[in-house]
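Example record used in the benchmark description.
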Amino acid sequence: MATQVTLAGTYEIQTAARCLVRNESGDMYLIAIRTDGINKLVSLKSSDNGDTWAEQDAGNAPSNARIIAYAACIDEDGVIRIPYIYNKSGVNSYALRYVEFDTVSDVWQNDVQAFVMLMGAINTITNLSLACAIRLDRLQVAFSDGTSSRAGVVQHIRYTNRTSLGMWAASILVRVNASYPDILIEEILNRPVISVVRTGVADVSIAFLGNSENAASFMSSPNLMLHGYTAGIYSQPSIAQCAKNIIWVVSPNASGNAQIRGHNSGDAWNNWRAAVTIEAGDVNDYDALALATRGYAKFMADKHVFGVDTKVGDLNYYNDFNQFQTDDWTTAIQVDANTDCEQVKLKWANDHNHGGTLRVDFVYIRAGDVWYDYVDLHQVI
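Model output (structure tokens):
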């Protein structure tokens, strides 16, 4: 049963690829932007598996009227790492900042500027998006750095990383004319993998593989899924990794159906499995999907996909327990029948995101408020 996380104010989770985490004690944290009044980051905590939530260390939360995008992940010490973008002083003056939230003491800490970004005018939080992941104390970050290409200004995806010593690598261009990055760190060589939607006459999902854990260049996959075009609407892909280092990307296709493609470890990066339509026919239409797995543990290859049907506005769920294949998907399971759902975000896999092994935790927007729910895998396996 869904629980309302936010009871007052207005909150934004759209710009973050992931924003829900668990620490080693099993406490859950949602990082969001509160947008009524002066924009500020908030950390909302639940110690009872999502039944109740409370903001932590509100007085020390980063606040700035121009905070416009963020992302969150958690490390092995229970510290939530949060890169965020804010407008420093007006047009063409932006910066990537970095802050931490320590879940042991429940305090904000180390709010610093990473580097200045020179971009076109970005005036709303819906223009930008970020994604981050961490392993071996190296934070990997993908972010967009321009306004919507639908508005006639080119948007790019860039990449940077932060070392354990707090040093930031110079950002590098991953892809022009692209938006909505998601990121993971592959299991074997710790290289970043970034999924994006290439925008243009038709949106296309693509995945990029870094050449090292401190990537200086990226190799592009073939076009993975071709989307339809709707003015002002982006089709958002999502990426995750399961056992045997199989990487999956899920995205809507040109008909709005959910599709998934996989890449096997050891194959050339341009050699991907054929796309599989999760649910064929004009049943549901999606412009954004969210994907989760249970991480890298042996035989844990099940996949879980969530999306809001743009025709109806309800929230649907699909799963596939056929291990390393993609041909045993359920039909849509309605999670929330309300017609005003949007922006579903899933908890990351179990790499430094402890607890909840047999459940898929997620948050989403309903009627402007953030709601939490989960899928109990005991009941669906």
